[in-house]
Amino acid sequence: MKRKFLLIAAMVFAMSAGAAMTSLAAGWTMQNGAWVYLDGDGVPVYNEWRRGADNLWRYLDGYGVMALNSWVDDEYYVDENGIMVSGGWRQLSVSPNGDTSDVHWYYFQDTGKAVKNKWLKLNNRWYHFNYEGIMETGWVDDNMYFCGDDGAALTGWQRLYPPDGTDLQLDPFEETDGKVWYYFNTSGKKYVPADGSEYTEKRIDGVYYCFDDTGMMQTGWVPYNGTGDISKYRYYGSNGASVTGWYTAEPPAELMGQYESDVDWFYFARNGEPKVGPREGEASTSDFFRINGKIYLFNEKGNPVYGLQKVQEADGQYTAYYFDEKDRSAVKGKVDIEESNGIKVTYYFGSAGRGYTGVYSGSLYYMGRIQTATEGMRYETVEVNNTVYLVNEAGRVTKSTSGVKDTEGVKYITDKNGVVVKIDDSTSVAGRVPDLPDWEA
Fold this sequence. Notes:
By secondary structure, this protein is mainly beta. It has 1 helix and 35 strands.
């Protein structure tokens, strides 16, 4: 009986010792110069992650050997020590698909997983990674962003080569290196029309700029609201800023045939929109535009008019205004104007530039034009505002209570204001209609 007990005790001890030996063999061990990991039964682990004594993760590959300098499941990477890379940047010469032709930057999250096919914000800068986790540079994400050589998305103004396939439509005679200006917001997104329009404007630092549907900054004339007439266009300088105030420029190429000269004057509002008025002869005083206290009138082509102009007043009546050929502003006072027949005629314009009607400084005017007797008549009656005046060939109003005679012997008696009282012995007086300004002739 005692011997049987000793035999059983020996068997139990042997089993306990075997179990202890198996437990000691579990974990990391070196075999044939490579690290392997044995499970509790002493069997090598394959295709699994295991922690080391330093609590860091390592991977056992399909041969049961700890992987070195390689990708795991195309999402994780283990370094030369077999440790899973995590929480930072890593430059690698091999991509998840095994390509070794280039060196690329990757970013691994704290979990060890590589950032793929998304944006990541680091230290207030945005980076984009493609489907393999490669940090991208250049145009990315449907060409809406541009990442510099360091991978960070650019912001603000940037002068860049456009994406491949972009039609620049540059002037072939303009010297250019092929780069154009873009504007990127604080997140790095390129500024483009939000509603699918061909063009859009953005105010940057108090100045308006225009961008097309590819994000390229525009210069010169831009058909902002279509084509057809100048009112649909806006104008931007060579630096892209909207032109404001007076500016000489060639008309838009599409409208060049509508203009008399290759270069003309325009006046632009703050957003580069040209001032446009009605057709010449159809203007009213409500169309006047004041600049620095001076009066200007623009036609339908966006040009400031010059010369004698027919303008309708608030009461529906017309009068003449004269705009200087040099500075294009409304002229005030007396001026000699060469009419269509080549003869210079005196006009007088009041303090607001309005063609004067009535007697001024001894002469009779109608809509600004001086009224004179027909050549060779010496005197002639002219009716202005239902009042008959007697004028001589120089346009002077004749004041003679004793009477004067014209070349045909007709006698005229006027009062002290030059108003006709009698013609010969008749108190029934009449005068011819006044001579109209040249635009009515």
